[in-house]
Specification:
Blueprint (H helix, E strand, L loop, with lengths): L1 H35 L2 E3 L6 E3 L3 H7 L2 H34 L5 H13 L2 H12 L5 H8 L16 H26 L3 H9 L4 H12 L1 H26 L11 H11 L3 H25 L8
Antiparallel strand pairs: 1-2
Length: about 300
Amino acid sequence: MDRKKEKRKFLIGCLTPAILSLVLFIYYPTLSIFNMSLYSMGGITNRKTFVGLDNFKDLMGDKNFLQALQNTLLIIVVVTIVTLLLAVLLAAILQRGKFKCKNFFRVIFYIPNILSIVVIAGIFGAIYAPATGLLNAFLNNVNLANLTHQWMSEPDIVIYSVIFALVWQAIGYYMVMYMASMAAIPEDFYEAASLDGASEWKMFFDITLPLIWTNIRTTLTFYIISTINLSFLFVQIMSNGGPNGRTEVFLNYMYKQAYSNGAYGYGMAIGVVVFIFSFVMSFVVNRATEREIYKF
């Protein structure tokens, strides 16, 4: 009995700091955001007026917010699809491929994850520069001058310039995660399939993908959350939402409303929408990708 009590005390002592941290730094701030979204208030004053759901009603008629919603959805969909396809393909090539310097390419693809967002934004700022940028210079040198653009100022293509930077930054991280899952697949499966005459593509779709599907489902949630967060950082540094709001995203618009325009309650209402949007998107993706789990 004494031993059980000591064990219980030990568990309580270990869990208490973690629980307090969750309550103080996650649950309480989250509930506070929900509470503040019901008020009209500034960020540096205690004056506030209860407005109920008026902030959310205003959001539904806010064209700039709806533009930010549209941009966020576009970024999430394109970045998720392109990153997933490239990361899985590269992981399969580097894990199953038989060629020299595989470790070198693994390091090369992972390097973007070592760099800070500011450095990456600076790199792409230099690449996209209209007069001295690497991209336009390359296109001019290969006689494709008609394809040169003002990559960060033309409304129709600027968001895709940001998307490309996001994909470049993310591929290596998810590639390593998929490689770890592929490495756990017994080689006997591939040997048996090879003896039956299966091609590499056949083995990829019938063995590799089904056995790493659980990892793919998990990372899809990461895609959504990380893309919402990282798109804010990339947009804030590279374009600040311009031109004409064509790269404005959820968090960028929330930041401007709460801290630049002084509409703190309105900004927190946007934060609540982002919170709910993230959960709904994650739930939908998990349900849509649900399938039988294969074990080995």
